[in-house]
Amino acid sequence: MISMMKTFYIIAVLILPFLSFSAVEANPSYDQVADQIVQSISKGDAAGVAKFFDTSVDVNILGKSGTYSKPQAEQMLKTFFSQHRVDKFEIIHNTSSPNNSSNAFVGWLTSNGKRYRLFVQMAESGNSKIIQEISVRER
């Protein structure tokens, strides 16, 4: 009986940390998602940003604007990144709604000596944080 309890205890000690870790990853915070998005933008990685797109996204990239499907929005961002290699991206403002149901950030993207204002608005959808709007405007 004691041997069985020791075995159970050892298994519990080894497994519980992984269970709690996966629960945290299942519902990441806005800050965790924003960090991943910022890293992807800094690398010019459209696919990395697009994995957080809603099924349709409000997009405004250098004046071309509309509501686009996730694949269309990703292609628009990919085209922008291919024409404007990212030298630097830095967040200048971060905000969230009073009930924390949405979050947004604004940053400066520098490419070939030009600066672009990049805006991202996110919302919560179930256990996920999704991008509902992204815009890039020349300064």
SSE order and pairing:
Elements: H1 2-26, H2 30-43, H3 46-50, E1 53-61, E2 64-69, H4 70-83, E3 88-96, E4 102-111, E5 114-125, E6 128-138
Parallel strand pairs: 1-6
Antiparallel strand pairs: 1-2, 3-4, 4-5, 5-6
Key structural traits:
139 residues; alpha+beta; Nuclear Transport Factor 2, Chain: A; 6-stranded mixed β-sheet; 4 helices; 41% strand; globular
Describe the structure.
By secondary structure, the chain is α+β, with helices and mostly antiparallel strands. It has a single domain, classed as Nuclear Transport Factor 2, Chain: A (Roll), CATH 3.10.450. It is 42% helix and 41% strand. It has helices at residues 2-26, 30-43, 46-50, 70-83; strands spanning 53-61, 64-69, 88-96, 102-111, 114-125, 128-138. It has a six-stranded mixed beta sheet with strand order 2-1-6-5-4-3, covered by helices on one side. A hairpin with a 2-residue loop joins strand 4 and strand 5. The radius of gyration is 20 Å and the shape is globular. The N and C termini lie far apart (72 Å). The model is unreliable at 19-24 (pLDDT under 50).
**What is the CATH domain class?**
Alpha Beta
Number of domains: 1
Sheet of most strands: 6 strands, mixed
* Tertiary shape: globular
Whole-number mean pLDDT: 87
CATH topology: Nuclear Transport Factor 2, Chain: A
State Rg.
20 Å
Low-confidence stretches: 19-24
The helix-and-strand class reads alpha+beta
Q: Give me the strand/helix succession.
A: HHHEEHEEEE
